[in-house]
Design brief:
By secondary structure, this protein is an alpha/beta fold. It contains eleven helices and 36 strands. The strands form nine sheets. Strands 16-15-17-18-24-23-22-20 form an eight-stranded mixed beta sheet.
């Protein structure tokens, strides 16, 4: 405690000096003339000056500020593998105990977890923020507890004190990593794309020349091959279907490696068709024929081959063949040699007239069984003796004619099954009824009566709930039957028309196995860390979905029905990485962020990035596996690290 006299004059200091001078001059004059009582006059003047000067005594209690030691603890994903969590805890306890023994020293601890997205370990960003909150003059030292794998070294601040690194990990750590390079986002169906893969070992890895690599597409059973370690592998891939194809690559976890989080990778490639090849076979001219042709020609991605029977064999008008302007159609080439080049074959009001021999129709049946698609748009001929059903194709068609044809108006209806089937679900919402009952589209006026086999699906009905649109799977392919030739009325806008374009688009995409039109499907729509898990099924209920996390743990989720045949739930994933979903029937794979996050690109602990900062501040790097360290106080400009100890400046 110290006391100080402080003056606070009642008049300006210059005037105070003037008054003091006059008082002194008067005192000297009184002494020179030997006036009695001169000393009393001097005391009075001094008292007056003291009163004007207004003095006071100021006392201060001073206490020195404490030094601050800043400690940043890295608890990002790469710090949660192996024994690093226990190493972190031991290092923090060691530092806390050492700082507690230091006089007049405080410890500030900042914990760094996983950030949003795939930014990796932002250690320098956290350190900069912590330093900005404290007076730099009080910083005595900085300690980082980390594996040294940070991703923002360029944001390192200007350090006011020695920087020390306490490094996690063990000297014999090693890890295996799967890397996928140059994976395209899009690929054309039927054409090979090359992916470049590499399996690399890091750290003190054992000598290994090759390892097994499992390759799975869309959660299907994987194919396993042996691949070399440390070499680029060119992998040719042909996508099996349109839409999103999820390719999963996995190499098994080896004994002793740090983590299997980077042993898997997912590549999502959107399969697109170069051209959709459609063969349209028209049996006879009718009003709907032009609608089919216009519909298919309006899409620039469709290559249409239109086979129209304009002059059937029974037509005898006496015109010589050499005077006809008709071109002989290459039926053998189309229906035997190049039939597998087509994605879809449409028979529009086709009747058997001997133009296509049974061998050709037999070949079309084989084409469907091997993965092709056939759509029948039927008219009255389908119920006659010349029906295409009475050919080899009849064995795969989803409706047997009864020979009855109804010629009266009806409004097509979506069946209960159709409400859940992706071809027709929500179709009535595109043409709402102002009266609020049933769909608001126009009527059709012809229906061919058919008997539907048990394994076929009737998704639309007509007069008296008779089948109108039926679908079926045959072998690897698909077939569908429209039991009417009046869909063109919707296109012409009769009685308000209807969603003919959308119906036929969905129908064609379902027949070509587009994933978004599959009636049994499980998929995920991610938004950041939030998953919207969607299950589409024709069943009235669905099982729970088991979600396997990147670390192997599982979560069971219950889905709720949001519309007929569609079940959903929202789930917040705890971390980025590769998730597998399984409900017992369908499987799905989804990667939140990269399948091997940035945190796991380099998993072997190392101080290479931090060494320049440590050297500039004369700090040190200390492996936690070597044991505890001591903390000492050193003068500025002296080395701040030694064997088993690190130094802190006396900041204030």
């Amino acid at each position: 405690m110290t006391g100080t006299i402080v003056l606070d004059p009642l008049i300006p200091l210059v005037l105070l000096y003037g008054v003091a001078g006059l008082a002194l001059l008067a005192l000297i004059l009184a002494i020179w003339r030997r006036l009695p009582g001169w000393w009393l006059r001097g005391l009075a003047g001094l008292a007056l000056l003291a009163a004007i000067a207004n003095p006071s005594i100021q006392q201060e209690d001073r206490e020195p500020l404490s030094d601050i030691v800043m400690m940043v603890v890295d608890e990002s994903a790469s710090q949660r593998i192996g024994d690093r969590p226990s190493q972190n805890a031991a290092a923090v306890a060691n530092i806390e105990a050492e700082i507690a023994r230091q006089a007049n020293t405080e410890l500030r601890t900042v914990t760094l977890g996983d950030g949003e997205g795939d930014l990796g370990t932002t250690l320098m960003t956290a350190l900069s923020g912590a330093l900005a909150e404290e007076p730099r003059a009080r910083i005595a030292g900085i300690i980082l507890v980390t594996d040294g794998r940070l991703h923002d070294i360029e944001r390192a601040p200007n350090l006011p004190a020695p920087l020390h690194t306490l490094l996690t990990g063990q000297p014999d750590d090693w890890d295996r990593r799967l890397v996928v390079e140059n994976a395209p986002a899009f690929a054309i169906l039927g054409e090979e794309v090359n992916l470049t893969l590499r399996i690399e070992d890091q750290g003190a890895a054992p000598e290994t020349t090759s390892v097994p690599l499992s390759i799975a597409i869309d959660g299907e059973p994987p194919v396993t091959v042996q691949v070399p370690v440390g070499e680029d592998i060119q992998l040719p891939v042909t996508l099996p279907h349109g839409g999103m194809n999820v390719l999963q690559f996995t190499t098994p976890e080896a004994e002793g490696e740090l983590t299997n989080r980077n042993n898997a990778a997912v590549v999502q490639i959107n399969g697109v068709r170069d051209r959709l090849r459609v063969l349209l076979v028209s049996g006879e001219p009718h009003p709907g024929e032009r609608t089919w042709r216009n519909l298919l020609k309006s899409d620039s991605s469709v290559d249409l081959v239109h086979f129209t029977i304009l002059r059937p064999p029974e037509k005898q008008d006496g015109v010589p063949v050499n005077e006809l302007s008709l071109i002989a159609f290459p039926t053998r080439e189309l229906f035997l040699e190049k039939i597998h080049d087509f994605d879809l074959i449409i028979f529009d009001r086709y009747r058997r007239r001997g133009i296509l021999p049974s061998a050709y129709l037999e070949n079309i049946r084989s084409y469907v069984e091997q993965g092709g698609a056939v759509l029948i748009s039927s008219g009255p001929e389908y119920g006659s003796a010349e029906s295409i059903y009475r050919s080899p194709l009849g064995q795969i068609l989803p409706g047997a004619p009864t020979a009855r044809v109804f010629e009266e108006g009806f409004v097509p209806q979506i069946t209960d099954l159709g409400d859940r089937h992706p071809v027709t679900e929500g179709l009535d919402l595109l043409s709402p009824n102002p009266d609020g009952e049933g769909p608001g589209w126009g009527r059709w006026f012809r229906l061919v009566d058919v008997l539907v086999p048990q394994d076929a699906m009737t998704v639309m009905s007509g007069l008296d709930e008779r089948p109108l649109l039926t679908l079926n799977r045959v072998g690897e392919g698909r077939v569908s039957l429209i039991a009417s030739d009046h869909s063109w009325l919707w296109d012409r806008g009769y009685e308000g028309g209807g969603p003919q374009l959308e119906l036929l688009r969905r129908l064609a995409h379902w027949m070509m196995k587009e994933p978004e039109l599959e009636e049994e499907a499980l998929w995920v729509e991610p938004t950041g860390q939030t998953m919207r898990i969607i299950r589409r099924t024709l069943s009235l209920d669905t099982g729970d979905v088991v979600v396997t996390h990147p670390d192997g743990t599982e979560t069971t989720l219950r889905l709720e029905e949001v519309s007929p045949g569609r079940f959903e739930t929202l789930w917040e994933a705890p971390e980025i990485g590769l998730y597998r979903l399984d409900d017992g029937e369908e499987k799905a794979v989804i990667a939140l962020g990269p399948a091997a996050p940035r945190e796991f690109e380099q998993t072997i602990a190392g101080s290479e990035l931090l060494d320049p900062l440590v050297e500039d501040t004369r700090g040190g790097v200390f492996p936690i596996s070597a044991g505890d360290i001591d903390i000492r106080t050193v003068r500025k400009g002296r080395p701040a690290a030694g064997r088993g100890w690190c130094g802190m400046h006396r900041a204030v």
